[in-house]
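Record type: ASSEMBLY
Status: queued
Input:
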Amino acid sequence: MDMALILAKANYWGYVILLLIGLYALISKNNLVKKIIGMVIFQTAVILFYITIAVKKGGNIPITPHGKGYVVEAANFMNPLPHVLMLTAIVVGVATLGVALALAIKVYKQYGTLEEDEINAMIREQ
Amino acid sequence: MKILGWLTVLMCGALLIFNVSEFPDMGDANSPANSKQNLSEYFLKKAYHDTKVPNVVTAVLADYRGYDTMYETAVIFSAGLACFFLLRIFRKKGPKSRFYRHTPTGVTLRIDEGGKLPEESDVFKRIDSIWIPHDNIVRITCRLVVPFIQIFALYVIAHGHYSPGGGFQGGVLLGASIILIAVSNNLRAGIQRMSEKGAALMGSAGVLIYAGTAALCLLLGSQFLNYNALAKLLHIKPVVARYNGILIVEIGVALAVMAVMVWIYYNLSSAGKHDEGL
Amino acid sequence: MEREWIDVITLAIVIVCAIGAINVKDLLGASILLGAYSFLMCILWAVMGAVDVAFTEATVGAGVSTVFCVAAVFHTTRRTKD
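Status: finished
Output:
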């Protein structure tokens, strides 16, 4: 593949790689906090994808100048809609991170470890 | 589990990489999401005309997509509640022994269970048993920085119509200022500034301000969340009413987010005991 | 053209941070690397013109969520097998 072709879609490649890193951590890491970190990376990868969609070449930030008779040319500004959707997603993301960490603390209090295989072994013994 | 993980990752990766070439180029103004005659073009062209807010993101967030943001705030508040129910322990019994520092001499006292506990004062300061900060530089620098953070947070909330910012960012900054106090001193200093009850009340008050503004529009004979209806109440033009409606809603969001961030931090950093913490 | 290079370089550092956060054998280090990852991501978004999102990520992702992670690690353990 051509180098220019890869560079033209660089952000999409980055998004794919980050998504896969997050997915790998979610599935095959043994530690619960590592799993939560994987979840955060997964989520940020999806947000990166949405922000990449919104980019327009030579576009300005979506704060429109105003004045008498000024007509906004939509092609000159970034697409604001994905920004709005992702802004709320980030804040909800930190809330879910808090709940996930609370669950991890609860599990640690119960079993004294964060490793999934040790927890599974203890559950089987009971 | 490792093999299963690699297998899933490789399969998903192959699918995604196979499809990357189908995505539009970066910055393509004619891609499906950016092409003409869709919703975002309407937002860009009409947001200032409709609401007098130059920052299109704020206008869309609090006005056009008001329902979304309202339930988003509710989700954050319920996350705070979830942390509270998961972790909070109401046992009065603290740790077995408490540590106090006599400030003039710098002597540390350990008082075991059953001993007489001294009154908390400037002379006798209670310190954490695990982590004992005795760092005046950190503490005083943080105390100096906090008012500026809070002023900046208020600016971010109030100026969100014209510059990047708004309720979410300002609320998180306000919460972070209180978390900074709790980190640099100890958890009890943070709780003194903002109690758990205060956090819970402020969180619900924030959600209530948002939903109440929306319901007020309904009562005034318009649709839910249509701020135009506030014009009759405030004696202003409908466009300016929408501008002010966005401001009120952002304040509600900021209150809720600030309270919930502080509340989650209290529960996480002390594992629910609200006694000794990070 | 310059802008694209900033994009690509930041993205590369972001990916390195993500791999580091997953692989480092210390949970406190992983939390701090996650904070660095979030802040670099915020720079990337600011370059891409999403100023509101970048601001939110700078306050939430790099600020508060790192503190949450450190608080949780403080109450559990730093030890990890992978």
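Annotation: Chain C has a mean pLDDT of 88.
Annotation: Chain C has one domain: 2-74.
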